[in-house]
Specification:
The chain has eight helices and 14 strands. Strand 8 and strand 9 form a beta hairpin. The chain is globular.
């Protein structure tokens, strides 16, 4: 899924324009948390109306960092562009309406929709081709998505027992999971991490200890629109920007890991069914 925001480039939109041209299941997803907070987990395409000559005719890919309701009728938001993805001409977006799940006339109306499409697959692969290059990241967009794959982001040292619980939960849910040290496809470990996140449908992130690498990888997963399931031994380790997403808190003992396995299995099954 992704957010499509047309016309509201100033960071606010009338509430009556929220979730226009949005399917029933995407609407249920968006409204399943207070004040549209689940939309913070989705990648976003922000652009002016197609025929608006008062603004630069470019779309940006990024994410929403904050959503607030003002005076009951206005939804305000803070958009942050993904600098790894260049601005895209609005006319090019118009050419990709089918891939983006958009009717062409939608681009001439200010609104906020949620689309059941992988934004990066629809846009990035067609704009940059295989192995899209940026100053920071090389996203392997030529690789196929694997619907049964769960990517695990966690500190390596001292977390093998936690990984065993996660792997068991994935198996119980009919899925398989990998973390970066399970594969060795590139000389650069970050390339393997990016490959894993890109191919996965779900990313499980253990935020215990506020590990900077895990935070970085979790941000990439959110940017790419993957379902992210945060874990932590204490909620104090969860960054403010992720506190709107339900975190599975666990204890690192036998009983605690069994409870984690059970709760995570239920969550993975739900996400796997949602697509």
């Amino acid at each position: 899924m992704y957010n499509l925001i047309v016309g509201a480039t100033g960071g606010s939109i009338h509430r009556s324009r929220m979730l226009e041209f949005t399917s029933e299941d995407a609407t249920q997803f968006a409204e399943s948390s207070p004040r549209y907070q689940r939309l913070l987990t989705l990648p976003t395409l922000l652009m002016p109306e197609l025929n608006d000559t008062s603004e630069p005719p470019y779309a940006r890919v990024g994410k929403i960092d904050e959503i607030t309701l003002e005076s009951g009728t206005t939804v305000a938001f803070r958009f942050r562009a993904n600098d790894a993805v260049a601005a895209i001409q609005s006319d090019r977006i118009a050419e990709l309406t089918s891939e983006l799940g958009v009717d062409s006339w939608e681009l001439d109306r200010t609104h906020w929709a949620v689309k059941n499409v992988d934004l990066y697959d629809a846009v990035l692969t067609r704009e940059s081709g295989p192995g899209s290059e940026s100053a920071a990241l090389s996203i392997p967009t030529h690789l196929a998505r694997e619907r049964d794959l769960v990517a695990v982001m966690m500190p390596f040292a001292g977390f093998d027992h936690v990984y065993d619980a996660i792997r068991s939960a994935a198996a119980d849910a009919g899925l398989r999971c990998l973390r970066a040290d399970d594969i060795w496809e590139s000389h650069n470990i970050m390339d393997d991490v990016l490959s894993l996140i890109w191919r996965a449908q779900i990313v499980v992130s253990d935020l215990t200890g506020k590990n900077s690498n895990v935070f970085y990888e979790t941000g990439i997963a959110h940017t790419l629109g993957r379902h992210v399931v945060p874990l932590a031994r204490t909620l104090a380790d969860v960054p403010f920007d992720l506190q709107s997403i339900r975190t599975l808190e666990y204890l690192p003992n036998t009983e605690g890991l069994e409870a984690l396995r059970s709760a995570l299995t239920r969550r993975l099954r739900t996400l796997a069914m949602s697509g």
